Amino acid sequence: MEEKPQIKTGLFGGSFNPIHTGHLALANYLCEYGGLEEVWFLVTPQNPFKQNETLLDDHLRLEMVEAAVAGYPHFRASDFEFQLPRPSYTIHTLDKLAECYPDREFHLIIGADNWQAFDRWRSPEEIIRRHHILVYPRQGYPLEDTASLPPHVRVVQTPLIEISSTFIRKGIREGKDLRYFLHPEVFRIIQEKGLYR
């Protein structure tokens, strides 16, 4: 019997504090133009590089991601890292996902800024050897010499969308109406629960 091809699944990890239209547009582009069949938004409980950032409760951030991705069949919100030891390192998450979902070919989605700092991650050589990586452009982080990238690493020319969760949190604190930077349901949750004030 012929084996079914693995489902090409992008892994978009982040604190999503909050998830915004930049995240969604990038993932949408990767599904429609970047060869991915699905993108999983992996809500991170604690980023080793962001120990000082005040995060909203894990489940509140997950609730916003679930609300944002509900209408599009190629997106999925994931709390996979909630069950893993903390802080969660990408190598452990990727290895565990590959073990739990053998029917999927996972592609780690990272920005050019993260790619430039990739050697500071836990076990970068192992990640590159065992897993696929998609690198998207970020302003101010040129990707030179893409021809010499390792075989599992691919640069995707997504549109540059420079919106940050920091900008949104600051704007909300200042009383700005940023509804068009957020999915309508995410905006509703933030308003109803009085988040980031």
- The helix content, as a percent range, equals 25-40%
Shape: globular
* Number of continuous helical runs: 7
Q: Could you give the order of the helices and strands?
A: EHEHEHEHHEEHH
Number of strands: 6
* Share in β-strands: 15-25%
Largest sheet: 6 strands, parallel
Could you say which structural class the secondary elements and strand pairing correspond to? alpha/beta
Note poorly predicted spans.
none
Alpha-carbon distance between the two ends:
57 Å
Q: What is the gyration radius calculated from CA atoms?
A: 17 Å
List the strand order in the largest sheet: 3-2-1-4-5-6
Name the average pLDDT: 93
Characterization of the model:
The protein is α/β, with parallel strands linked by helices. The chain contains 7 helices and 6 strands. It has helices at 21-32, 58-69, 90-100, 112-116, 124-130, 165-173, 184-193, and strands at 7-14, 38-43, 75-78, 104-111, 132-136, 153-155. Strands 3-2-1-4-5-6 form a 6-stranded parallel beta sheet, sandwiched between helices. Helix 2 packs antiparallel against helix 7. The protein is globular. The mean pLDDT is 93.
Question: What's the SSE blueprint?
Answer:
Elements: E1 7-14, H1 21-32, E2 38-43, H2 58-69, E3 75-78, H3 90-100, E4 104-111, H4 112-116, H5 124-130, E5 132-136, E6 153-155, H6 165-173, H7 184-193
Parallel strand pairs: 1-2, 1-4, 2-3, 4-5, 5-6
Helix pairs in contact: 2-7, 3-5
